[in-house]
Every structure is written in C-alpha cells, then in structure tokens.
C-alpha cells in the first residue's frame, strides 16, 4: 500500500473507531501470516505484557497461520499503532 493510501486508510479507520466504540474498549485483531516461528514470536512479543488473549491456528497445509488477538486498548490511536507494527512483517495479511 502506498504511504498516501495507507495514511488515508488509517485516518478513516480512526474516525470509524471513534464513532462506533466507547474507549477504552476491547479490540480483536485477526492476521494471517506465513508459518514462521520468528514472525510469530515477533507478533506475540508486541502484545506480551498487555493482558492479550492470543489464539493461533495453523492451516491444513501448514503453510500459514491465523492469529486472533483480543485486548483492551485505550483509544483508536493504539489500535492503529499495533496494525502498523504488525504490518512491518513481510507477508502478513490483516483481516
């Protein structure tokens, strides 16, 4: 995603989150990543110590892994922060 489109996307997301949720609020992230222990450890490390509920499920072929992370966040900016951090990982798909 180009930087301009990315910023536009996050701006709309922030607005939507502000309009549809009361903060602080629980938020559910869902990601698909290529099965890779380092990538998984990086993502889990981002959310460690945050009292996050992390669930993983490997695909039938073992090539991919889905990750669901539920945690309580202070505001829409915090939601976006984690999307950007996980987005640094090559091959990640945010759902």
Report on this structure.
This is DUF493 domain-containing protein. It holds the Pfam family DUF493. It comes from Neptunitalea chrysea. InterPro entries: UPF0250_YbeD-like, YbeD-like_sf. This protein has 95 residues and is an alpha+beta fold. It has one domain: ACT domain (Alpha-Beta Plaits). Helices cover 43% and strands 29% of the residues. A 4-stranded antiparallel sheet has the order 2-3-1-4, with helices on one face. Strand 2 and strand 3 form a beta hairpin.
Write the layout of secondary structure elements.
Elements: H1 3-20, E1 25-34, H2 37-47, E2 53-58, E3 64-73, H3 76-87, E4 93-94
Antiparallel strand pairs: 1-3, 1-4, 2-3
Count up the helices: 3
Q: Residue-averaged pLDDT, rounded?
A: 94
End-to-end distance: 15 Å
Q: Provide the helix percentage.
A: 40-55%
| Strand elements, count | 4
Q: What fraction of the residues are assigned to beta strands by DSSP?
A: 25-35%
Helix and strand content put the structural class at: alpha+beta
* CATH C-level class: Alpha Beta
CATH superfamily membership: ACT domain
Side-by-side strand order of the widest sheet: 2-3-1-4
Shape: globular
**Number of spatially distinct domains:** 1
State the major sheet: 4 strands, antiparallel
| Low-confidence runs of at least 5 consecutive residues | none
Order of helices and strands: HEHEEHE
- Which CATH architecture is right? 2-Layer Sandwich
Rg estimate, integer Å: 14 Å
Q: The CATH topology is what? A: Alpha-Beta Plaits
